Every structure is written in C-alpha cells, then in structure tokens.
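Hi there. Long-time user, first ticket. I'm pasting a complex I've been working with (about 984 residues overall). I'd like to know whether the download I got is complete or cut off, because the file seemed smaller than I expected. Thanks.
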Amino acid sequence: MSKGLPKRSEDYSLWYNELVKKADLAENSAVRGCMVIKPYGYSIWEKMQAEIDRMFKETGHSNAYFPLFIPKSYLSKEADHVDGFAKECAVVTHYRLKNDEDGKGVVVDPDAKLEEELIVRPTSETIIWSTYKNWVQSYRDLPILVNQWANVVRWEMRTRFFLRTTEFLWQEGHTAHATKQEAIDESVQMMNVYAQFAEEFMALPVVRGIKSESERFAGAVETYCIEALMQDGKALQAGTSHFLGQNFAKAFDVKFATKEGKQEFVWGTSWGVSTRLMGALIMAHSDDQGLVLPPKLAPIQVVIVPIYKGDDQLKAIGVRADEIIASLKAVGISVKFDDRDTYKPGFKFAEWELKGVPVRIAIGQRDMENNSVEIARRDTGVKETFSLADDLTAKISGLMDEIQESIYNKAFSFRADNTRPVDTYDEFKKVLEEDGGFISAHWDGTAETEEKIKNETKATIRCIPIDAIAEEGVCIYSGKPSKRRVLFAKAY
Amino acid sequence: MSKGLPKRSEDYSLWYNELVKKADLAENSAVRGCMVIKPYGYSIWEKMQAEIDRMFKETGHSNAYFPLFIPKSYLSKEADHVDGFAKECAVVTHYRLKNDEDGKGVVVDPDAKLEEELIVRPTSETIIWSTYKNWVQSYRDLPILVNQWANVVRWEMRTRFFLRTTEFLWQEGHTAHATKQEAIDESVQMMNVYAQFAEEFMALPVVRGIKSESERFAGAVETYCIEALMQDGKALQAGTSHFLGQNFAKAFDVKFATKEGKQEFVWGTSWGVSTRLMGALIMAHSDDQGLVLPPKLAPIQVVIVPIYKGDDQLKAIGVRADEIIASLKAVGISVKFDDRDTYKPGFKFAEWELKGVPVRIAIGQRDMENNSVEIARRDTGVKETFSLADDLTAKISGLMDEIQESIYNKAFSFRADNTRPVDTYDEFKKVLEEDGGFISAHWDGTAETEEKIKNETKATIRCIPIDAIAEEGVCIYSGKPSKRRVLFAKAY
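Hi, the file is complete. Here it is re-exported in full:
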C-alpha cells in the first residue's frame, strides 16, 4: 500500500495529496473544488466533532440551525464583511428546472428567476444577526450562546483536500452579550477551548495569538487564533475566534434594554473550526509510511492481525483475538480483528500503517505456542513480544496514553526547533528560505510593512502571541521601534 | 405562556404553528420557506440523531459526506428520478458577486457564469452513485453501507414548520450490494430500524408497509415506509426506505466483477428520515397546554421549580434541589433547576408545560417543613405529594419509563380507535369526512383507481401494510377483485 506514497522530503505536497487518497480519507468529486469525505476520513472528523461539541456544551453553548441561503442584500449590510466575503460565492438565481425541448435533459426554467438572488452561506453572521434581532429585547435575553454545525461554500480557485475546498464542514459559534468585556472574555475562552482541543486530542501544539489588522476576519474588531506548524515548516491557522464589537448589532439593528431601561447595541463574537483540522492532523504527524493518528482521535485504536496457515490456526488465533477484543473493549479501546483471507499479513501491516492505527497486535503460531503476542507502535515503529501472562489490557491502555503524549512531544520539539528569533531582514529572508518554520521578529505594527514583507517573501504575520513578552526592539523591515516580537511564517 | 395557544379542536393547523413558535422549537427565517431551528428544538433533533446514528452503526453502517452540489446533467441520468426531483430545485448559476457600480451593494458578476449549472441536492442518489462507480470494482468492495447527515433543498411552494420546508435536515443512507436479495433485505432492515426508533424513542406507533407505485420514490423499484397517525386524523409518512434495483447502477454504470469473474450491475438501496420527524413528534402527542415529550427524547426530563418568599427560603430550597439534581444526574436523568427570580411559579409551570418537560418537581415552604416535594406529570397532569423519606430517584426513574409507555399507549389506542375497515365507497367517503384516520379498504391495485380516489376525496394510499393478511374482497371503487386491504388516509 505505502509503496505508492511519495516521500515527504521529495514532494511534501504530493505526499499529502496521495496520503489523503490512499488512506481513504477523501477524494475529489465530480464538482470542481468539492471533495467526498470517505467513511474512514469522516469517522476521524466525527471523533473531533464529538469532543469539540462536548467542550462547547460544557462552556454553556447550545446548538441550533440557520438557513443555508442568505439574501444577497444581507451581505452588504456590514461594510467590512462584504469586502471580505461577498466576492467568491455560489449564487442561486433560479428555483426550477424544466425538460429540455429536445427531450434529452433538463434546463433552467427562465420563468423561475428569483427576485433577489440567494447566496450559499460562506459564513453565517448576517443571517444569524438578522435572526438575533428578534430574539433580543432586554438584558434578560442575553447572553445568547449558540453554535451550529454546518456546511459552507467559498468559491475557491485553488483547492486542496481539507485545507481549502469550495464546500467544507465546520462549526460556527455566534454569541451575543450585554457588555463588551463579556464578549471579549467569550472570544478568548473559545480560543482557549480550541487550543485545548488541539493539544489534548490532536496532539498538536498551537500558539495562541491575536491577528494583525490585515489578517483579521472581515467585520471583526479583534481576531484570536491558534496557529500550528506543519512538518514542511509552513504554518496552519487551525481555528479563529472573533470579537465582533457591535459591528453586526449595528448592521442589523440589534439592541437591548439594559436593567436601567436604556437601549444599547449588543456585543458579539463568532468562532469556528472546520474540516481544515483534518489537514492539520494529517500534516503534523504523518510519515512516509502513512498516517500517524493520535489514539484519542483514531477510529480504530488497535488492529489485530493473525499470521496463520490454514483454517485451524486461524480459528485458534480467532479465539485468542476474541478474548483480547473483549477485554480491550471493556476499557473503551476500539479494536479491529483483520481476519480477511483475501490479503497476506504483510499487505495488512502496510495498510494499517497507512491508515495510522496506533497499535498493531500480531498473533502467529509461535505466539500461540509461547502464550505471547507481538505489539507494534505506529508512531515509533518499535515492536516487542509481550507475554500474555502479564496484563495486556493495562499494557495497551498505557500505550494509548504514551503514544498520545509521545506524538505531542514530537510535534512540540519540532516546533521548538523550528521557531527562530531573528533580528535583521537579511537573516529573516535567509531563515525563511533555508529553514522555514516560525520566525519571531520585531515589527513596527503597520499594515504597510506587513504587506511589503508579504509581497517580498510570501511570509505573513501568523499572530501576535498571547504570551509575547514586552521587549523593546526595532522592526526588521523599517527599523522603527517595536514593543514585542510577532510570529511570521509562510502559511497554508 | 399557553394562554396564547389555540385549542387543537378549534384550529389544529394554527395550534401546531403557534406551538412550534411558542415552545421555541423553530421560527421562520428571512429566506422564504427556510426555517431557523432554535436551540430547544435542535436539542430534541440532536437526541433523535444520536439514537438513529447509534442504530445505523449497530447495523454496520458508516457515515461519510458528499457534495452539496450536483451537476445539472446528473439529474437526468436516471429517467424516473429526474421526473420526480429535478423540477423544484435551487439552481446555482454564478460563482461571484461584485460591487454594484452605484457603490451601494453587490450584484451578480455576469462574467462568473458557470459552464454547467449546479443544483443544490434535493437528494443525493446521483452524486453518490457517480462516486460509487470508482469505489466498486469487485465483489470484495461490496457491500457499501454508507449514510450521510446533511441538509437538502426542495423548492416548496407551501411550507410548514418541520413537515415541509425548502431546506431541511436529514440523513440519507445509500448502500450498494452484490445481490438483489441482499439489497431487498437491507431496505426492509432500515424500514424496521425506523419503526423501532419511532416506537421506542418517539413513543409513536407506526404502520410498516409498501408504497403503491404512484407513491413510490422516483427511481425506486420498491419503497418501504413507516406511516403514523396524527391527532387530527391525518397520516404522516415518517420514514422511507427504497429498494433501487439496478436503476442507479445502470444510470451511472456501476458494475462489479463477481467471484466467477462476470461483470454485473450493483444493486442499491437508499433510505432517509428528516426533521419531519420533529413534526410527527409534536403532532402526535402534544395537547392544548403545549408539547408533550416522551422522556427518551426530552432535552430536559425533570424541572424543579422553587416556590418561595425571600432569599432565605430560596437558598434552603436550592440546597434541597442540589441534592435531588445530583442523585437524578447520577442515574442519567437530565434536570433543570429554574431559580429565575424574574418570573413567578405559575408562569414557570406554564412555560415548562408548554415545553413538554415530562416531570415537574415543585418545592415550597410546606414541602420543606414536611420533607416532601410535589411531583407533576406532564402527560396526564396528575400531581402527587412525595415524601423524601422514600426513594425519589427510584420514583422519578420509574416515572420516566411509565410516562414513555403511557404516551405510546395513548397514541396506540388513538390509532386503533381511528383505523376503520370500510367496504363501500360511500362509507369510505363518509368516514373520511366525519372521522378521518386510517381507512382499511380493498383496492384493485391500479394506479387509475388510486388517482380517481385521490382526486375525489384527497385520500391517498398510505401503504400496503407489511402484515396485511390475505383476504379476498372487491375494490371499493371499481368493484374489481382485491387480495388484501390497503391503508388510505388524508396525509401531510
């Protein structure tokens, strides 16, 4: 299976694409820019969803559902928003087809033209704030803490599996508050929820930070984000949380009566993560043999492969496997017994490596005689013979934690090794070209400098880290004074 | 709260609409025919989804995700399918907006016209079978047992909350099999899964049956369904499961190599339930005071309302409530303590009745003195004083089962009382007009008779029940011979 997988060192981009296809995560569809998420890929996304949804509920949020379509005029109500979003959208203009006169197919019925075109939501601030207007009269109606799981469409010219597709799946939280501080606290809280999810479940260390003005969400006052580093030294924005100020409240006239009876505009936030996280997960940990999945998100945590000759041996191994499966399932570990007789063990080994199953247990005839099994870790490739006189369930259970931690630590070390402070623009360009990674540098805080650096090097400011320490310095580009370092990188 | 709710006997349709709005289940959106599912309504849908999804997985299915858009030409590939579905669809013709020249908004960019229009999926057979073509080469690749949770759009002229909306949420299962029998078995299995869900969780008795040819899904060889009876005597189709034969395999050229090396077309099924189930749930059980939710789908199963004067009393009741909440949560019962100081107990009672919470516990000062609570059942309205010297958790736990069963039994009796065998067309028309409900009658099996009855009475054949017994008779309309009775009703 992995034979067909290019090496990361040779062509990282091709490696990623082939891995997504060969590991049965996703494939291109007949519709340009839209992918099919295959069952194996979707089962990882489901595990992500379940954890994220749980974290949302623990922080007081409820789910709801708003329309797929947005009236065209809504997009222009918030001035910055329309500049950022209204351009590349799928536009519904008609609501009916009719039989072609040649009888061979269907054509759009020109009589069924919509009075106002509908946009397939690229994000839902406008339709949701137009709804909130009816939900909010007084301070008693606040806060509104709502999230929706939905599909959205942004007409992308260049697409890449999970990272940038015309249609993608995501969640978008939209909250409304009585005070500015409460809304800011909410935005920060959700950035932290995302960071916690990325680190605990995806085993992905992230930098928490604030976007520069140019990189801010269209319509936001402040954008908080989590940024991760991929193995090719490029950064990936993994989640964003926006403090919207009163921008959308003003655009849609959403006011509330305070306790004192005054009318005030509501404060808002929005925040989202998407199937892009799948791309981050794949790119951060996988290797030339295929996926490396952290146990907490692996749909299959353990695979048991029998090595046998003839039905009798298979049957005996099957009995042993059943015992192991029962005891692992009892402690919540998912196991697959791969007893397909159409494939050889070597093929199966390669296939489950490609699919990133954290632990493989092989049971052969000698193992049966010795009352042992062979345990192989996907992340390190280390194999060991384990005696069944010892507690296998405890062993595997411990391995799950160990592998989860080990994958995180590896990614953490990689990021540490690839985050470099630089103090001159020459050094900046050199590091960017030779090493990539995050570059920590002083910046004068102007959009002008930011854009020049971007145009000259393709590096963008990923974020101003939340924990950046005050440090007097001079901008690497303009030489003007700077009060803290920011993180630059080329990014997905 | 319930004051504003019309009585069912006065205007059933208005009662339903008002109930949906007042109980915070859904509301109309700015987009014609599309509704907003509000958090309380969505939380019921989430409970439905969780159980249905579990049942799908237990029967071997996996989830996946296919594109929202379908190329227009795909719809015409299966001849019957296009007739049934291609007409009232949302059509995407452009992919970009641009600033209006007057600077005041955005307009569709005429340069961004799609070569081939895209249809927002009304159902996904075509895009999925075009994908399955690449997934299937040999019998080893079968069966494919895939489901997707998705939004779909059918441009409806007359819409009604949950029952018929332009956009709605659903699941659609699409399976592919090597043999005809296996595909038929799958279709029947999924009808049974739906029936089991409706009866066990929704407390909704359903008739399992087969659709007549006229009512069959466009592109199916056989449509299995579950049909339920609402309180106004109208039937509601709650779920369908289609045996597709080789129709879509032929339309999309999906063949497989058999074990013997022959090329054969694949056999297919598709099956779905939607947010329509919400409508069924509401209409089947609710009363003039509001929703009546079966405990297994109630987002809040128990509400505790304190009746107090002053903070000291509230504080003491709060301590008692906390103990009750802890012990109920420990056995998996969801509880809300409604300690809002902005509303009076009477208002809260009415609100939770409106929202269908199965059990209300009221705690007043006298209860505190007597070490008791008042327990009220939403379904029967029966109240009792319960001594906390007894086991409250066991009591409430038992009530959950009792209420679930009682709601089911009530609906079952209602259906039994409203299913009437008739043997003449005059009687048929009389029963239909005076009583409504299901009418069990002989039919000659022709589409012609079926259509005449429909045109003359608005009653349709809901299904040929799976358990219909062979019985010689004559068609109530044509007098021609018939071998079994079928179920007629006016339907949603």
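A couple of notes from our side: The two ends of chain A are 28 Å apart (CA to CA). Chain A is about 35% helix and 25% strand.
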